[in-house]
Design goal:
This protein has 488 residues and is α+β, with helices and mostly antiparallel strands. The protein has 17 helices and twelve strands. α4 packs parallel to α17 and α5 crosses α8.
């Protein structure tokens, strides 16, 4: 097995991390390997045996060129600042260069304690590992920026949470693991020099086009805000609730990171919360834009020492960027939902009103969010049965449907072409909560078959297949409110 390591962070950012070492697993066993991603990364698995793969991807064997470290970072958790968090149950094996020159982090999650574990065991249970593998692959298939899962390995150890679970390690791939909380840590403890050093590294790695900017740190803030507006809009466009949008879970690369108590909505409700620890709904579906705004304000605060160093006047520029976030998000959101509805981009405020009123209708009638957009495409094809099956009465949304249809008639080409365009952006299959839980329960018992089948389904979210019809809708009947747990 071969990795093309080129460890720029550990090589140039001494003091921003702690050395780390993975715990030796008892009896590692490969659960899943993402061969297509390995090929993309240039990770040559070749003729490596399953046993060899399991040892490497669990931390049992250290591949040549690896330089394992744990990142330091802080973070606001549910609004309260924790000055030191860091990689307490993960280590960065190193950075690799893909065949096209792109740089990626290779991280082992659940590989044992580090300097930042704060008396934790640093381990992960099989359920959260397989959940992150599954959901991150679904997000990638839906073209939503995300960290990726390269491998999942059962360690042979037991992990004690509310009860004992089989242990596992996830190999996570990211453009980097630099977070808003990383900047917060160095702003809080060390000041402008360290913030500027981290920002300079981040710009060189992620945004080299900003190197020549008049104030590169202000430009960095602008760039990250734009990426976060786009990311959260894309989440919401597929009914995704991250569940724990703490600042230490916000990657400056604009990738979704840390799939803890996440889930996807079935019936639309803006106040949907899945996390068992989010008692006040801070991270509810409909509050995600506001929390993104709040997180970006914290990022701006962390960057201010570096921004100020270049130009005192640019402090006002940073404030203006933060104040403009709601309108910036609104533009992105309306464009995205307009595409989901088959609309062009020239409808202006009239389209915005049509889009905004849609969500009141969906909530009033308890409509399944994912299926609704596919049902609209079916309606364009002359088949209203799917839409009727989603509504409490056939005419429940008739006034809104009439307005939408009238708006579609202004577009060209015709309805059938629009239906095809809508199907290309509206997933038919998402990781439905009941399917995820059933697959994870079977996996914990040692049967991976349901999980592997679900993984195959969510990797192909747009193509209707008769044999996958059972995966296209929510659980039948009145299921109990779904709850997820932050249990890595």
């Amino acid at each position: 097995m071969h990795f093309t390591f080129d460890n720029s962070f550990s090589g140039s950012m001494e003091g921003f991390y702690a050395p780390a070492e993975a715990a030796k697993p008892l009896s590692p066993r490969l659960l899943a390997l993402n061969y297509r991603l390995a090929e993309r990364l240039g990770v040559l698995v070749g003729d490596a045996s399953a046993a060899e793969l399991a040892r490497v991807f669990s931390g049992g064997d250290l591949p040549e060129g690896a330089d394992p470290i744990a990142f330091a970072y802080a973070g606001h958790q549910f609004g309260h600042f924790s000055p030191q968090l860091g990689d307490g149950r993960a280590l960065l094996l190193g950075e690799i260069l893909a065949p096209d020159g792109a740089r990626f982090d290779v991280q082992l999650k659940g590989s044992g304690p580090t300097a930042f574990s704060r008396n934790g065991d640093g381990k992960a249970a099989i359920g959260p590992v397989l959940r992150e593998f599954l959901v991150s692959e679904a997000m990638a298939a839906m073209r939503i920026p995300t960290t990726r899962a390269l491998a999942a390995v059962a360690t042979g150890d037991r992990v004690q949470r509310e009860r004992s679970h089989p242990g596992a390690v996830l190999t996570r791939i990211a453009s980097s693991h630099i977070r808003v909380g990383t900047f917060q840590f160095f702003a809080a403890h060390f000041g402008a020099d360290h913030v500027a050093q981290l920002a300079d590294y981040s710009i060189r790695r992620h945004f080299p086009q900003l190197v020549g900017a008049a104030n590169p740190y202000l430009a960095l803030l602008d760039q990250v805000i734009g990426l976060q507006c786009e990311l959260v809009a894309r989440w919401m466009g597929v009914g995704f609730v991250h569940g724990v949008m703490n600042t230490d879970n916000v990657a400056i690369s604009g990738e979704t990171i840390d799939y803890g108590p996440c889930a996807f909505m079935d019936r639309f409700a803006a106040n949907t919360v899945f996390s068992s620890i989010d008692a006040n709904g801070r991270y509810a579906y409909g509050r995600q834009p506001q929390i993104m705004h709040w997180n970006m304000a914290r990022f701006a605060e962390a960057l201010l020492p570096a921004i100020h160093r270049v130009s005192l006047a640019d402090v006002d520029g940073a404030k203006a960027l933060v104040e403009a976030i709601p309108e910036r998000f609104r533009v992105v959101w309306h464009a995205l939902v307009g595409e989901k509805l088959g609309l062009g981009h020239d409808g202006g405020d009239r389209d915005a009103k049509l889009i905004d009123s849609l969500f009141d209708q969906l909530e009033d009638h308890g409509v399944d969010f994912t299926s609704f957009f596919r049902a609209l495409a079916m309606l364009l094809r002359g088949d209203g049965t799917m839409l009727e099956s989603l509504l409490p009465a056939p005419d429940a949304m008739a006034p809104w449907i009439a307005l939408w249809w009238k708006r579609i008639e202004r577009e060209s080409p015709g309805p059938l072409e629009h239906a095809a365009l809508m199907d290309a952006v509206n997933p038919l299959y998402i990781p439905r909560n009941h399917k995820v839980e059933a697959a994870l329960a079977r996996a914990e018992e040692g049967d991976l078959a349901p999980w592997l089948e679900l993984l195959d389904v969510v990797r192909h979210p747009y193509v209707d297949r008769v044999e996958w019809s059972d995966y296209a809708g929510p659980a039948l009947g009145d299921a109990e409110p779904y709850r997820t747990f932050c249990g890595t």
